[in-house]
Amino acid sequence: MHESVLDAAEKIKRLEIQGARNVAIAAINAVETGAKQSNAKDKAVFLKELADAKTVLFASRETEPLMRNAIRHVIHAVEKSEEESVRELVEVVSRVSSQFLESLERSKEKIAEVGSKRVSDGSKVLTHCHSSTVTNMLRKAKNEGKSFEVVCTESRPVFQGRITAKEMLDAGIETTMIVDSAVRYFVNDVDLVVVGADAITSEGNVINKIGTSMVALAAKEARTPFYVASELLKFDPLTVHGDYETIEERSPQEVWKDAPSGLNIRNPAFDVTRREFIHGIICEEGIMSPHSISELIRRKYPWIFKVM
Ligand code: RUB
Q1: pLDDT tens, per residue, the chain with 308 residues
Q2: In the structure, how many helices (H) and strands (E) does the chain have?
Q3: Ligand 1 mutation target, pool 209, 228, 283, 284, most atoms within 8 A of CB
Q4: Does any ligand 1 atom lie closer than 6 A to the CB of residue 21?
Q5: Residue 127 CB–ligand 1 contact under 6 Å
Q6: What contacts 184, CB < 8 A, 6 or more positions away?
Q7: Atom of ligand 1 lying closest to residue 234 CA
C-alpha cells in the first residue's frame, strides 16, 4: 500500500483532515500520488492497487459518499480505458482526478454565489460544526459588503465549531460561539440557519454532523429557515437501492478521556435530518427542494448511478 494512501487515511481518521470536501480532496490526491508511484507492470496489478487504496480510504470514515463517488469515478475511468500501459493509465487517473477536483471547486463557488444572496444585510446566521462550503458562502456574502453576524456551535465532542469561529473572525465577520445545547435558546434570534452535508440520500434527507437534526428541529419550531449547502456529488447512490447510509460511530475517548469504568458512552459522528425540515438544498444547480434532488442528480451526474 502506498504511503500517500495510508497517510491520508490516518489523517482522515484522526480528523486532522475533516469535512466531506476536504476528506474527498485528500483521498483523491492520495490515490493520484499512489498511482504515480506505482511499480505495477500491468493493468491488472495497477487496478488491484487502486482497489486496495479504495478499501483503505473507504474505511477511514464510513459516512463520506463524496469521497466514495470520487474514488469510484477514478477507478471506473481506468477500468473502462482502452489503454493497457500503466504509464498511460496513470495519466487517466491524473486527468479524471483533476476534472473531479475542478468540478468540485466550481460547485463550491456556485453555491457561494447562490447562497450568499440569502444572507441579508444586518442579519444573523447560525451554523453547526465546520463546513468549508458554508464558510466559503458566508465569506462571499461578507466580500459583497454585507454586514451580518454568525452564531456557531462549538460542536462537541471535538469542537470543529472552533475552526468555523476562527475562519469567520479572519474574514472580519462578527462571530458568537455557543454550546450545542444552547441552539434552541438562540434560534429565535437568528434569521437563517445554514449547515453543510456529508451525505444526501435518495429520499432527500441529509446527513451531517451529530446535532444537526436537533438544530433543524429547533429551527422548524422557531420558523427560522433551515438550509443545507452541499454539492450534489455528496449523494449516496446506494440509498436508491434501499441501503441506509452507515453512521460512523467514533471512539468514546473523544467524549470523556478518563471516564469511569463501566460507563457506556456512545459517540455517533452524524445524524439524519429529514427532508421536511429542510427549506432548500443550496447546490451547484441553485436552491433546490430536497424532494427533487434525486432526479436532479440523475440528470446532472448520471455516472454516479453506474459506478457503484
Ligand atoms: C463535518 C461536517 C460538515 C460536512 C460538510 O464533520 O459535518 O458539515 O462534512 O463539510 P467532521 P464541507 O468534522 O466530523 O468531518 O462543506 O466542508 O464538505
Answers
A1: 789 999 999 999 999 999 999 999 999 999 999 999 999 999 999 999 999 999 999 999 999 999 999 999 999 999 999 999 999 999 999 999 999 999 999 999 999 999 999 999 999 999 999 999 999 999 999 999 999 999 999 999 999 999 999 999 999 999 999 999 999 999 999 999 999 999 999 999 999 999 999 999 999 999 999 999 999 999 999 999 989 999 999 999 999 999 999 999 999 999 999 999 999 999 999 999 999 999 999 999 999 988 76
A2: 10, 10
A3: 209
A4: yes
A5: no
A6: 218, 221, 222
A7: 18
